[in-house]
Write a structure and sequence with these properties.
The chain has about 375 residues and is α/β, with parallel strands linked by helices. About 40% of the residues lie in helices and about 15% in strands. Helix 2 packs across helix 11 and helix 4 packs across helix 10. The structure holds 4'-deoxy-4'-aminopyridoxal-5'-phosphate and glutamine. The site of 4'-deoxy-4'-aminopyridoxal-5'-phosphate has 14 residues, from helix 4. The site of glutamine has 5 residues, from loops. This is Pyridoxal phosphate-dependent aminotransferase.
């Protein structure tokens, strides 16, 4: 078989979760919370199902949810997208990213991605017959080098993808970054795909610079988010895309024939949550900041060196003091021999920086889980 995705194997998240299970390791690898969703969310889901919301949702999403997303966006970012023409509900951010790419990227086009980047980007670009052009982020700070981004953009560039807060590093783009980006894209026909799934998980009083705050950027952008991150339910796979009407129309053509519509009762439940409990997403940063701070204090008692975490729910650690293994081998060893599963960074790169000794640990966990992991990590 001449495969269409020769470079693709099983995702590192699946591989490490399986390995963790086989070896009884504490799983800080794949990113998912191990604590319950807000009780009200389950009640709303139950209510929606009992009320008979069990058939196909409208293709673009349940109106009450699109309206609630538009209202939340206006409240948080000062820009009110039109619920009917600019907001589309999707089956997770993964589907939204796939749709946005396939809506505008053609065979032979180029898409600029910033490495390290989340693993679903490049396969979607490849399937569109396009080519990913990889621009490395600064290996120490994970900040973009805008001059290199500028140089990577050429006549074939159709799209640029950004992700803030960033997976795997937690780095965040600043208002200055947004201005640089706007200057680079001005006068080009390049579309922007902004992956903002960790938008509400930001720390130390920082402000998430959504592309939706920036008129010059949002007019060419698909902005993607996910309720999985905000409501501790990665298994529900409900997200959304905000884009100007012309872009949303193309996006919806792909969505219509990719999944057609998204899980109906879940949409009703999120509509109620967004409308009635804004405190949940407003306090999410503080909720995770407490976990981050506690985990970092504990890590200080190990030989792993934690990097700064401005946002998201991942902690990068430098393990050079512990081992000379490359990151894939180290994470395997850590899981199998030491009982803590972590994610290596190399799968997030086209070409990983040589000698980089970093692993990603997820702190979206109960204290007991993190305590158990730390006890094992103290023995390294
Ligand atoms: N983008 C990033 C940066 C992510 O970390 C994730 C989830 N791991 C996704 C997209 C996909 O989100 P979803 O689970 O809603 O498809
Ligand atoms: N986004 C999650 C992570 O980065 C994993 C999602 C998945 O397993 N596909 O860990």
């Amino acid at each position: 078989l001449q495969t269409k995705l020769p470079k693709v194997g099983t995702t590192i998240f699946t591989v490490m979760s399986q390995l963790a299970q086989e070896h009884g390791a504490v799983n800080l690898g794949q990113g998912f919370p191990d604590f319950p969703v807000p009780p009200r969310l389950v009640e709303e889901l139950d209510r929606a199902m009992r009320a008979g919301h069990n058939q196909y949702a409208p293709m673009t999403g349940v109106p009450a949810l699109r309206q609630a997303i538009a209202a939340k966006t206006a409240r948080v970012y000062g820009h009110a997208p039109d619920a009917d023409t600019e907001v589309t509900v999707t089956s997770g951010a993964t589907e939204a990213i796939f749709n946005a790419i396939h809506a505008v990227v053609r065979a032979g086009d180029e898409v600029v991605v910033l490495d390290p980047c989340y693993d679903c980007y490049e396969p979607a670009i490849d399937l569109a017959g396009a080519r990913a052009v990889h621009v490395p982020l600064d290996p120490a700070t994970f900040a973009p080098d805008w001059q290199r981004v500028r140089e990577a953009i050429g006549p074939r560039t159709r799209m640029l993808m950004i992700n803030s807060p960033h997976n795997p590093s937690g780095a965040m783009l600043s208002a200055d970054d947004m201005r640089e980006l706007a200057a680079i894209l001005e006068g080009t026909g390049v579309f922007l795909l902004s992956d903002e799934v960790y938008e509400h998980i930001v720390f130390d009083g920082a402000r998430h610079e959504s592309v939706l705050r920036h008129p010059a950027l949002r007019e060419r952008a698909f902005v993607v988010s996910s309720f999985g991150k905000t409501y501790h339910c990665t298994g529900w796979k409900i997200g959304y895309c905000i884009a100007p009407p012309a872009l949303s129309a193309e996006f919806r053509k792909v969505h219509q024939y990719n999944v057609f519509s998204t899980f109906t009762p879940g949409q009703h439940a999120f509509a109620a949550m967004l409308r009635d409990d804004p405190a949940h997403y407003e306090q999410l940063g503080a909720f995770y900041q407490a976990k981050r701070d506690r985990f970092r204090e504990q890590l200080a008692t190990t030989r792993l060196a934690p990097l700064p975490v401005p946002g998201g729910y991942f902690q990068l650690v430098d393990y050079s003091d512990v081992s000379d293994l490359d990151d894939a081998a180290f994470c395997r060893w850590l899981t199998v021999e030491k009982g803590v599963a972590a994610i290596p960074l190399s799968p997030f790169y086209d070409s990983p920086p040589p000698g980089q000794r970093l692993a990603r640990l997820c702190f979206a966990k109960n204290e007991a889980t993190l305590d158990a992991a730390i006890e094992r990590l103290q023995r390294l």
